[in-house]
């Protein structure tokens, strides 16, 4: 089976590509290389172009008319950057995605697996959310994901697309075979920051926000290994038609599925887990919450298990261990 992956040179997209290959399928990569490194493309079928480039998209499907589905991972993802520069986030994440989806419909390649985000959820009393929980995206980044879900559902109804929106919680770790991992030089995510401190690339870890209404005041999150996340995309493609048929809430071929571990872990608890795996204390300073931050949430992932046969197989400790392993070889692989 051939699967087109937009953003396939990124952290998540490249890991999905490896999961597809390991299962005997063929990933086809579309990436502008704006943020993803060329090294992550490896020897895969690759088209360097923008997702809104209709000429490039037509060429891809002309070359590979047997593509079964498109996994749409391409997006800008840094929350503080979206607050300071919302224009580029709305252009890249919303406007260009609209062009991609319309072109897929015109080319009669209707199956889409969309990388959405748990950042669109409102805070609920016990922090566990299911797919029907209230939504309240608080950052421009989160609002782009919320908008694209609405756009995608409307396009499914109007243009014949079929789509699964996967609402990610917090991916951690790296490909267990260390083919790919977190590649940005100055990561903004928790695990990336901790690894930078552990490897001596930053002097101290900044814990941002300790006044949230959680059990210890730090934000609460749901961490899942990026390899588990990749396996969910594989299962979404393999079970696509079944998931749409059984998961849609009306006559539109569209459904939403949470991807998470079903365990809420606070940032302080995660730091303690990191120190346990790493074997040393991490120097830490308390800082105010960043623009766009929220108290957090964790997933009820029953729907993913029911429709996709998916649940997490790897632990938080596995994710921390693989992130540290990747951190040691990252510069060697990326050059």
Question: How would you characterize this protein structure?
Answer:
The two termini are 32 Å apart. It contains 11 helices and 15 strands. α1 (11-22) links the parallel β1 and β2 (26-31). It has a 7-stranded parallel β-sheet with strand order 3-2-1-4-5-7-12, sandwiched between helices. The protein has a two-stranded parallel ribbon with strand order 6-15. A two-stranded parallel sheet has the order 8-11. It has helices spanning 11-22, 54-63, 79-84, 86-106, 140-159, 190-198, 226-238, 240-247, 267-278, 302-308, 316-334, and strands at residues 2-6, 26-31, 45-48, 67-72, 111-117, 128-129, 162-168, 170-172, 205-208, 220-221, 223-225, 254-259, 265-266, 284-287, 298-299. The protein has a domain at 2-173 and 223-260 and 299-313: Rossmann fold (3-Layer(aba) Sandwich). It is of the alpha/beta class.
